[in-house]
Amino acid sequence: MLLSALSVPLNEMVLTAFLVFARVGACLMVMPGISSPRIPMPVRLFLALACSLMVVPLVQPRLETTLENAQSWTILRMIVTESIVGGLIGILARIYFWALQFMAGVIAMAIGYTGSPGGTIEESEPQAIVASIITLSALFLFFVTDLHQEVLRALLSSYSVIPIDSGLRPDAALVDITDAFSNAFTGTLRIAAPFLVFAILVNIAIGLINKLTPTIPVYFISLPFVLAGGMVLIYFLLPELLSFFISEVGVHLRSF
């Protein structure tokens, strides 16, 4: 009799923990830094379990009546919804880093440093060394400035905005993703703008010189000077550009 009386609360607690793990785990699966393939899978799994167990006491009282008479299809719908909500929060936090990674590749092309790709931190595909340095520096500042805590705060706040027993509004989610993509690529375009202007001016100058001296391979001779000019720009502008990027990411994360 005692075991039968304890089995129902225990089942509800386990189910609540699994629902919380679906949202938290999906968020950490795409969150900047933690979702990196450089972090072993067991470490990410234990981190998701630890964060989920911290959230369970906050949502357990609300779900007692909901899970008591829930059907199997209702529980399955809640699991799918929780995974989508967690993945959406992680994507919204990672959008700016996707945009920065793209613009970092554009910067590497603009200064003529696209050869000998190296390993990346966030992705498994190789990337130009300059782009890897930019993305790694931004990711380092992301954790140093405690912006990862803003993602966790947004994850906790999501239980008030989108409770476990409520449905997901796809139209609002698509609007949030569209706005985030627009703001992210607009902000990172400002970061790449000095290098794009540098590339345009340098190519125009090289083209004019090549017209004046067609017998000299001006393009190949100018490559070291173009690369040196791009490195000088990175040396002087990169700290300010990364500060601007982190401030934009902070404003974005504090808005949801």
UniProtKB/TrEMBL annotation:
Ranges annotated as spanning the membrane: 13-31, 43-60, 72-92, 97-116, 128-147, 191-210, 216-238
Predominant location: membrane
Location of this chain's protein in the cell: Cell membrane; Bacterial flagellum basal body
Domain of life: Bacteria
GO cellular component, one term: plasma membrane
Topology term for the membrane: Multi-pass membrane protein
Pfam families, A to Z: Bac_export_1
Stretches of the chain forming a coiled coil according to its record: none
Any one GO BP annotation for this protein: bacterial-type flagellum assembly
Keywords linked to the UniProt accession: Bacterial flagellum, Cell membrane, Cell projection, Cilium, Flagellum, Membrane, Transmembrane, Transmembrane helix
Family: Belongs to the FliR/MopE/SpaR family.
Free-text function comment from the UniProt entry: Role in flagellar biosynthesis.
Protein name from the UniProt record: Flagellar biosynthetic protein FliR
Record organism: Phyllobacterium phragmitis
Species lineage: Bacteria, Pseudomonadati, Pseudomonadota, Alphaproteobacteria, Hyphomicrobiales
